[in-house]
Amino acid sequence: MESFNENFKVVDGLIRQTSYGVVDKEKDVVISVSVGYRAEDDYGWFEFYDEKSGGDKWYAEGGLWFNGLELVDYDGVFSLSSFIADFLHKKGFDVEDMR
Fold first, then answer.
1. Residue 77: domain span
2. Which residues of the chain have pLDDT under 70?
3. Residues 80, 88: contact at Cβ < 8 Å?
4. pTM value?
């Protein structure tokens, strides 16, 4: 797999949750997404934010760790968003253990 840094947009629902439960949620949010991968060290990253507020309301970023083509760890969010997992799967990565 070669290194990449790609941007795309999705429309999805988002939920913000703390140990106290759900504190905010919104349907049909237009989200700008960036996903990158550095082949030389099997490391990747992601960032996404809502277009309406420019990230003031919804924003997340994190790291992605791979063992070859298998996603073995991530950080920055409690649960990896399906649109990031789907994108990585379409690029040829095995993400099943992270869904």
1. 4-98
2. none
3. no
4. 0.91
Total domains in the chain come to: 1
- The whole-number pLDDT of residue 6 equals 98
pLDDT of residue 20: 92
Sequential DSSP letters for 54-86: TTSSSEEEEEEEEETTEEEEE-SSSS--HHHHH
21-38 and 59-67 strand pairing: unpaired
Query: Angle CA(97)–CA(80)–CA(36) in degrees, nearest 5?
Result: 100
Whether 47 contacts 34, CB under 8 Å = yes
Query: How far apart (Å, rounded) are the C-alpha atoms in residues 85 and 87?
Result: 5
Alpha carbon 23 to its chain centroid, in Å, reads 20
What pLDDT does 11 receive?
98
Contact present, 76 and 61 (Cβ < 8 Å): yes
